[in-house]
Design goal:
The chain has 2 helices and no strands. It is an all-alpha fold. The mean pLDDT is 83.
């Protein structure tokens, strides 16, 4: 009976770790999406500045500030997602201690 209890305990831990692994993977995928969005927004600022200057027009600072605010939101999302991913990873490691 002790063997079956131990086997059941190990199986439960494996299922728990698998679930945490899925959550970890999802968080990491979302981090990559957020980082790509930050990259795109930074490129948009550069493209806007280039196009505007090339056309001899004046840069709208408010437009750039709006893009910067959007970048900051994505950076904050990245920070939260990475924190959550780290927690999931810690839980996976502690499952098998």
């Amino acid at each position: 009976m002790a063997f079956m209890d131990k086997l059941s305990e190990v199986a439960g831990k494996a299922v728990s770790a698998a679930g945490e692994g899925v959550e970890f993977g999802k968080a990491k995928a979302k981090v990559l999406q957020e980082k790509n969005k930050v990259k795109e927004l930074k490129e948009a600022i550069g493209q806007y500045a280039y196009d505007t200057c090339k056309a001899g027009e004046e840069i709208n600072v408010d437009r750039i500030k709006d893009i910067i605010a959007e970048i900051d939101e994505h950076l904050q999302n990245i920070e939260c997602l990475e924190s959550g991913a780290e927690e999931s990873f810690s839980e996976i490691k502690s499952t098998f201690k």
